[in-house]
Structure formats: structure tokens, C-alpha cells
Design goal:
Layout: H1 4-32, H2 39-62, H3 66-85, H4 96-100, H5 103-126, H6 148-164, H7 170-197, H8 205-224
Helix pairs in contact: 1-2, 1-3, 5-6, 5-7, 6-7, 6-8, 7-8
Length: 228
């Protein structure tokens, strides 16, 4: 259960190792018979169906182990990325995202995603470098003087988007968007709490860093507004 990468990588190797044979030996036979079947894609689809069976059997066994469950999700997302980008798998075919979208599994995914995101936020805001810009010494890069915590937070949101963007239904994507909105609100509350501690020094370093963080986040969210 703790090594899903073993069978996921094995399937990718099988697809890669058989592609040339299927293209050169099997595809001409199908073409000659007037079939519209793509040999490599059908081979890939058959192997993916085995993975779906394996996932359906494994997931109930690790649903409440956060570490194992997160590892499985991470490995499945990496597998899907390579399956589509390297092997040309079709989005209309069955995929692992359908398994991850099933109710019990999906709700667990949302829960652990939120848990680890909040832990990451705790870490970034308690860091000594939280209010310092990474690029403070490079003027042309750092016009907005973005503190490290704000940049790390937006990267966190971007990574979450990247993880859920290939979900098969809009309703599931919207649930992840709801999680991101919760995280933005949580970050806003945390910034407000820090700001209240700094009101006596409103021209102080940290107070200005908070304003820069808010400006940066608002600007990036406005840029993302065009992303359906």
C-alpha cells in the first residue's frame, strides 16, 4: 500500500516499451482491416483499466492514513501527467481522476489538502524570513516588494490548482475552488491579526510588508480572473 509508484511506473514502462512494436507491427494490420482503432491507445487503455481496479481495491484500505493517502494522490497525479503528456492518452478515456472523484475518496482528498495547506501556512508565517522579500537586493525584479510569506502563499494556491485542474467534472473543480477561497480568507485573517500587533508602528517594516502582501495577492488574483 505504501508503494503505488511501483505499479504506476511499471504500467508507464510497459506502454513505452511496447509502443514501437504496436505502431510498426500491429497498427498496419488494423489499418489494412479498415479499423479505426489506435493500437497504442487501446493497449494503454487496457492497462489503465487494471490500475483503476487496483486503486478501487487499495483506496478503502488507506483512506484514513493521511501519509499513505497523500502519497497515493501525489503518485497518481504524476502518473496522469506523464500518461497524457508523454504517451498521448485521450481525455475521453477512463482515467485515475474518475476514481479520485468518487465521493468518499474525493472528500478525503479535500480534507487532507486543507490540512496540509494550513500546516504550510503556519510554517510560512512563523518563518524568520516571512516578511522579507526574496529579491530585496534586485530592484528591477522587486517593484512590489513582496514579502516571502505572500509569494509562498500564492505558490501554494497555484500548486493546488495544478493538482485539481484535470478533474473530470466542473462541480468537483468548484469544490476545490471553494477550498482555495477558504484559504485566502484564512490568510486574510492571519494578516489582520499580525497587523493589529503593528498598529503603533504603522510606518514600520512589518506593517508596510503586510500592505505589500495584500497588494500583491490582490494583483495576482485579478490576473487569475481570466482563468476559467
Amino acid at each position: 500500500l505504501n508503494k503505488p509508484e511501483w505499479y504506476l511506473t511499471q504500467v508507464l514502462m510497459w506502454i513505452g516499451n511496447h509502443a514501437k512494436f504496436l505502431d510498426e507491427k500491429i497498427q498496419p494490420i488494423l489499418d489494412k482491416a479498415g479499423s479505426s482503432v489506435n493500437a497504442v491507445l487501446e493497449f494503454s487503455r487496457g492497462l489503465v483499466m487494471l490500475i483503476l481496479e487496483k486503486l478501487a481495491a487499495d483506496i478503502p484500505c488507506l483512506l484514513y492514513d493521511d501519509t499513505l493517502f497523500c502519497h497515493l494522490v501525489d503518485e497518481v497525479l504524476l502518473f496522469e501527467r506523464e500518461l497524457y503528456s508523454v504517451h498521448g492518452y485521450l481525455s475521453s478515456f477512463p482515467s485515475c481522476m474518475h476514481i479520485l472523484s468518487e465521493e468518499s475518496c474525493f472528500q478525503r482528498w479535500l480534507t487532507v489538502e486543507k490540512k496540509f495547506a494550513l500546516q504550510k501556512m503556519d510554517t510560512m508565517l512563523s518563518s524568520e524570513a516571512a516578511w522579507i522579500s526574496q529579491y530585496k537586493d534586485i530592484t528591477d525584479v522587486d517593484e512590489m516588494k513582496v514579502p516571502d510569506c505572500a509569494e509562498t502563499f500564492m505558490t501554494l494556491l497555484l500548486v493546488i490548482t495544478d493538482r485539481y485542474k484535470n478533474l473530470p467534472t466542473a462541480s468537483r473543480k468548484l469544490q476545490f475552488l471553494g477550498l482555495q477561497k477558504e484559504l485566502v480568507d484564512d490568510f486574510r485573517i492571519r494578516l489582520t491579526q499580525v497587523m493589529k500587533e503593528e498598529t503603533r508602528a504603522s510606518l514600520g517594516f512589518r506593517y508596510c510588508a503586510i500592505l505589500n502582501a495584500v497588494n500583491y495577492i490582490a494583483t495576482v488574483l485579478a490576473d487569475w480572473a481570466d482563468n476559467v
